[in-house]
Amino acid sequence: MKMYVISDNIDTQTGMRLAGVEGVVVHEHDETVEALHRAIADGDIAIILITEKLAKLVSREMDALKLTYERPLMVEIPDRHGTGRTPDSITKYVREAIGLKI
């Protein structure tokens, strides 16, 4: 099983390649949807990493794909410019999910 990154900038994709994760750089809505479908069709891909900017661009399509397919897992990641989330979003998520304050 492998991971695959769909990024909107070359820096994120290059960093992931250095870690052994293949991927693609796209910028437009249709390119992103096509990249998602190609990744889903590849039976070896277990996790799709997609930058937050692109995930917002194709949010409806991602929601439909998540409901349709059990695999792969789709994970939104920040790009080199950071994240649009609040600074404590991960700790807040953990606190709400398991009741543990970290």
Ordered list of secondary-structure elements with their pairings:
Blueprint: E1 2-7, H1 10-18, E2 22-25, H2 29-41, E3 45-51, H3 52-57, H4 59-68, E4 73-77, H5 89-98
Parallel strand pairs: 1-2, 1-3, 3-4
Spell out the key features of this protein.
single chain; 102 residues; alpha/beta; Rossmann fold; 4-stranded parallel β-sheet; 5 helices; 4 strands; globular
Distance between the termini: 31 Å
The count of DSSP E runs of length 2 or more, i.e. the number of strands, is 4
User: What about the largest sheet?
Assistant: 4 strands, parallel
Kindly provide the radius of gyration, computed on alpha-carbon positions and rounded to a whole number of angstroms.
14 Å
Q: How many independent structural domains?
A: 1
Which ranges are low-confidence, i.e. pLDDT below 50, for 5 or more consecutive residues?
none
Structural class: alpha/beta
Assess the beta-strand content as a share of residues. Answer: 15-25%
Name the strands of the widest sheet in spatial order. Answer: 2-1-3-4
Q: Architecture, according to CATH?
A: 3-Layer(aba) Sandwich
Helix content: 40-55%
Principal-axis shape:
globular
Could you explain the architecture of this structure?
β1, α1 (10-18) and β2 (22-25) form a beta-alpha-beta unit. The chain has helices at residues 10-18, 29-41, 52-57, 59-68, 89-98; strands at residues 2-7, 22-25, 45-51, 73-77. The mean pLDDT is 86. A four-stranded parallel sheet has the order 2-1-3-4, with helices on both faces. The chain has one domain (2-98): Rossmann fold (3-Layer(aba) Sandwich), CATH 3.40.50. It has five helices and four strands. Helix content is 47%, strand content 22%. By secondary structure, it is α/β, with parallel strands linked by helices. The longest helix is centred in the middle third of the chain and has 13 residues, at 29-41. It holds the Pfam family ATP-synt_F. Keywords: Ion transport, Transport. GO terms for molecular function: proton-transporting ATPase activity, rotational mechanism. This is V-type ATP synthase subunit F. Belongs to the V-ATPase F subunit family.
